[in-house]
Write a structure and sequence with these properties.
Elements lengths: L6 E8 L10 H10 L3 E9 L9 H11 L5 E4 L10 H13 L3 E4 L10 H34 L20 H10 L1
Parallel strand pairs: 1-2, 1-3, 3-4
Length: about 180
Amino acid sequence: MNNHNPRVAIYARVSTEEQTTDNQVPVLEEMARQRGWEVLKVYAEEASAWKAGRQKQLKELLHDASYHKYDYLLVWSLDRLTREGVGNIFHLVNTFKTYGVSIISNQEPWVEQSGPVADLLTAVTGWVAQFESKRRSERIKAAVQRKRDRGERVGRLPGAKDKKPRRRMGYFERFDDRRK
């Protein structure tokens, strides 16, 4: 790697379209500035880190990294990459390492270290991210079921409209195709 002029990318992710990466990106840009680095590209997306395949910006970042476009990847925290557990976090971290890209995390400074302690902490981080995601899902499902059991309405009110257009994906595309 060229230590004089490192190539840097930022990856920022939030889980829903109602959220914003505005809290992550400026902090990561400042982190790069403090190190004297220029950020070449920001990959920002609103996509679940639990559902593999939905993170289009992460796919693009991995593609670009495979062509050695970056030396460093700045992230808010490792759980922004994935919440799919220990195996997936290790796979991503090791894929970036294979491409010659070092990950630097704002929330986990130990990521810059190597060796068994860093591996252990990466595993714990992957497990915690998956655990938190599953717990959140369980709470949401329990609340929905509680409303159903009480006979309360679940979902949007009749006639409710989105403030911005929904993205067509998965089930909706298949449903629309069957109606034609």
